[in-house]
Write a sequence for this structure.
């Protein structure tokens, strides 16, 4: 018996309609639901809080270059397995899985292009491929991109989004790519040419300790995680609490490691303007 007399209500069990996959995601910044189509139209930047979500290498190249101007280099180059690396999943299996998932042969694309009419050489790493880590192919492609820019008198732009550093599956062959890319960049510098490094979330490890950290002009996206070891590892090593925002773009700008922070929608224009300022 209810407060209003005998209850004659009948409860009907309604099956919840499943939300289709690939329609919504949760913003890592504000944790609000974000509509994929709205994100895509906003260059994968959260319209509520401005958090910059990741982009694929192809998406970044498409955004930064003039339509139809990007011509890829060394696209067929793929990694071998020099150490015959074993484990729950072999290196060959990891490479094959990421090649199928991303449509890339390795973690970087390179090519010559135009940026608002300015001729340039562009390289973009992609964190979807073994966390954007640098093995022999990534190092070789970037070194060749630098050498092409040097030989043709072009400014160079490298967009880094790599959380994996040097790729352990290739051992010392991976580590030597740090020196190789920096040696090529030094020849580019001595030729009097411009190198702009763009740091996105995340740019860590051997990538940051080599080509990503030596730009003539270093630009970062907002709130990007940038450093060598991650904050948790640093805290455990020095046994001290790190300051708020440690290793984020804003902290690094305040401490002089980077030159500017640029919103994604403004990056192409800023790159073109920087090329003009530095080369004219």
């Amino acid at each position: 018996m209810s407060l209003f007399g005998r209850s004659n209500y009948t409860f009907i069990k309604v099956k919840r309609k499943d939300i289709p996959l690939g329609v919504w995601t949760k913003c890592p910044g504000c944790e609000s639901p974000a509509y994929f189509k709205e994100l895509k139209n906003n260059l994968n930047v959260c319209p509520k809080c401005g958090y910059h979500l990741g982009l694929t290498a192809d998406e970044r190249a498409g955004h930064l270059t003039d339509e139809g101007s990007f011509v890829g280099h060394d696209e067929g180059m793929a990694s071998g397995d020099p150490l015959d690396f074993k484990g729950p999943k072999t290196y060959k299996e990891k490479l094959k899985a990421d090649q199928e998932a991303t449509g890339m042969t390795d973690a970087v694309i390179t090519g010559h292009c135009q940026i608002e009419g300015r001729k340039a050489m562009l390289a973009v790493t992609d964190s979807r491929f073994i966390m954007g880590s640098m093995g022999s192919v990534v190092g070789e492609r970037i070194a060749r991109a630098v050498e092409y820019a040097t030989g043709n008198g072009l400014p160079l732009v490298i967009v880094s989004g790599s959380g994996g550093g040097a790729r352990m599956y290739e051992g010392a062959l991976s580590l030597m790519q740090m020196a190789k890319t920096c040696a090529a960049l030094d020849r580019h510098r001595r030729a009097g040419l411009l190198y702009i490094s763009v740091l996105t979330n995340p740019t860590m490890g051997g990538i940051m300790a080599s080509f990503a950290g030596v730009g003539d002009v270093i630009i970062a996206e907002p709130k990007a995680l940038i450093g060598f070891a991650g904050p948790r590892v640093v805290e455990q090593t020095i046994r001290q609490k790190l300051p708020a925002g440690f290793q984020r773009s804003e902290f690094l700008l305040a401490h002089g490691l980077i030159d500017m922070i640029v919103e994604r929608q403004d990056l192409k224009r800023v790159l073109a303007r920087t090329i003009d300022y530095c080369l004219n």
User: Anything to note?
Assistant: The first helix runs from residue 36 to 41. Residues 161 and 243 are 24 Å apart (CA to CA). The mean pLDDT is 90.
